[in-house]
Amino acid sequence: MENGHWFWPTMGLIAAYAGIILALVIRGARRTRSLSDYAVGTSGFSPTVVGLSLAASITSAATFIINPGFIAVYGLSALLAFAVVLPLGLGISLVILTKSFRRYGASVKALTLSQWIGQRYQSKGFALFFAVLSLLLITFIVLICVGMTKVLAQALGVEEWIVLSGLVVFVFGYMMFGGANSMVYTNTIQALIMLVVAFLMLGSGYEHFSAGVHGFWEKLAAIDPQLTTITNPSSPLSRDFFEIFICNFVVGIAVVCQPHIITRSLMLRNDSDVNRYLLVGLSTEAVFFAVVITGFYARLMFPDLQVDGHVLRLDGIVSAYVVREFPVWMGLVVVLGLLSAGLSTLEGLVQSVSTTLTSDLIRPLFGRFIGSDEQYVTINRLVIVALAVISFFLSRYQLLHPNLSVGIFAQNGVYAYFSAAFIPVLFGIYMKSTPPVAVIGASVIAILVHFGAYYGGITEYLQGPVRNPAVAATYAILASACAGLLLHFSLKKTAAS
Q1: What CATH number does the domain containing 44 carry?
Q2: Is the pTM of this model over 0.85?
Q3: What pLDDT score does 2 carry?
Q4: Count of alpha carbons within 13 Å of 150, Cβ hemisphere only?
């Protein structure tokens, strides 16, 4: 399909989509008068709406655009890691943690995860520590910007830096004003679009099953036998049982401890809404995670991972597949879904990171110079501008010089963040009298172990040009848990004596 056939239809689609988003943002901005309004909204929302918002926020450009590339290159082993094991851990963790987290967060009127942790342990310094750590989530923002840029640049046939510039200006621009009051509704629309597109993408390879599932696997095995094996020694992320099943399950359990995920329950009206919120969110999410199967279809279309004589980079495989596989009218719907997948999470990240930096970093450090809530709203907008500039330059670098994939860059930052957050959240919910020193020590150890193991090349999993952040995160979470338990019981024993 010539890209020229896509340019004007894609431009029309983007214009219409942007108009709808701006209408919702204007509606939400009229109700946003304080930082609290921006963070959690002016009132509780329907559990169905918040559940769809949760699913859209968890699923990002990673699931729809980047991760299928890993499946195309590394096969079944990557599919098990990204679409089975990690989602299983995530679902279990959400069910276990959400009710208790929401109950305490609502009682103390927490707006952010940093605030929740600081108030739970009565430590302003600990809240400040997590506000600084939230900067690590910029790596995930970069992943989404890169993923959406790849899709739009492929559809429009224009240079990536031009698309990236427009994308950053538009998204960060409207997020300066809308916040939670508009984001929940934009996320809901995005989730519904993503559901349609998920089924389109999953059904796009139906012809490959003409000889049944066995025939499908035989086609893949003919390209590369390792595409159909449970482990893949040639992959830097899914070489053996430990990497695929242990690391991704541990990561899945802890991944919930990101501010744009776990704090979503604070938007509900009351505790009785939690069950329906989880049912809607998790069932929708299961469909979204299945989309990575599209990576197999792309590999069958591009068996040598080349198109028109050019080698496909991992992050561009899905974009190339969409343009080649779908007619323009249907391809536009798919492009819309891929954009929705990216925007839904990007909005949540911009909202949560900017709120955290404003309320938990700037307020405690410079609050004596700031008077009204309106001033904090203005400061929050300036923070978003700074995030936009940083994200643009990091995204530009990842487009030009990825280390296999922008996914590795994002995982390294995000996994470090939730490795540090997991034990404070877990102990804060289930161990009511934990000494603050215990969880502070656990978080510091998590950060030191994660980055120490990753950059220090600890074990063969973290050596070579491409290293697996899930392994470093697993080491960090386990070390953090051991340290937290040891400090908890030893300090309690000392206090008792």
Answers
A1: 1.20.1730.10
A2: yes
A3: 47
A4: 32
